[in-house]
Amino acid sequence: MKDIKSDGTSYDHSVDFSYLDEPSDPTEDTSYSPTSSSRSSYIDPMFRGASSPELLKKIYPDARPSTWKDGIRDLLIIVLLCVVMIIYSLAITVTHYQTAKFEEDTIKTYDQVEGVMTHVFEDNSDFKADRVDIIYKFYYEGKKYEGLQELPPSTAHNIGAFDRESKGTKVTVYFDPNDPEQSYLAASPYPLLIEWLFPILPTIGIFLGIKVFIECVNGERWVYTRGGVTKIKKFR
Questions:
Q1: Which of 2, 55, 146, 189 would bridge 50 by S-S if both were Cys, CB 3.0 to 4.6 A apart?
Q2: Cα separation, 70 vs 218, whole angstroms
Q3: What pTM did the predictor assign?
Q4: What three-state secondary structure class fits 180?
């Protein structure tokens, strides 16, 4: 294509694409190499491109079969994290159970008196679990006492604390006659079955870590360096 310049002369700015029609050399190796300028043939083994150890070795010359040393570090990290999660989840569940048991046994020894809920607050913030805060008052031997108890919604609803409109609802208060400041509206519920099952998840993680370690020991995984980071890949 030719254009006319302002001085009357012409110039050609067309591009020659004839090289695209040239036949390819059947003996040419089109596979990826680290020095190749073309990225169209690059296959990243992390995206299932390397379907065999041979191809991985071709892409990453430093690739080698795994040994126990390659798996021991990951195994120790996985086991440590999972053990911490197991201990943490068990500690929360056991504490929950002990609190519920203590309150249940304590209430059985307390006296009962009729009280009134003065404030009901539902807390669903990101920093606290779903709960209902109930402020109540009651009278004993002519003296007024107030108390605050935090309960899960299900337990709060059982005693009539549904929302802010529940203010003024009468409720049974369990209190220590020797120390009326110590009082409850209801015992905290026992942990649900699912709470006892939480430690199973990190336990599964430990078994998966052991499985990967065994595969490394048996040389079923291949180790290579990608972007300065050591990677481990298994071929099915």
A1: 55
A2: 11
A3: 0.54
A4: strand
The residues near 134 (Cβ < 8 Å, ≥ 6 apart) are 117, 119, 120, 121, 148, 149, 150, 151, 156, 161, 185
- Hey, what domains does the chain have and what are their CATH numbers? 58-105+198-236 (no CATH), 111-176 (2.40.50)
Element (H, E) at 106: helix 68-109
Length of the chain counted residue by residue: 236
Q: Which of 131, 112, 128, 110 lies closest to 120, judged by CA?
A: 131
Distance CA 116, CA 224 (A): 70
- What single DSSP character describes residue 233? E
Q: What's the token pair of residue 151?
A: 């309960």
Contacts 24+ apart (CB under 8 A), 41-45: 45/224, 45/226, 45/231, 45/233
Residues 43, 4: Cα–Cα separation, whole Å: 47
Instruction: Encode pLDDT of 99-148 as tens digits.
Output: 889 888 988 889 999 999 888 877 655 444 577 888 999 999 999 999 99
Q: Which helix or strand (DSSP H or E) is residue 204 part of?
A: helix 200-217
H/E stretch holding 202: helix 200-217
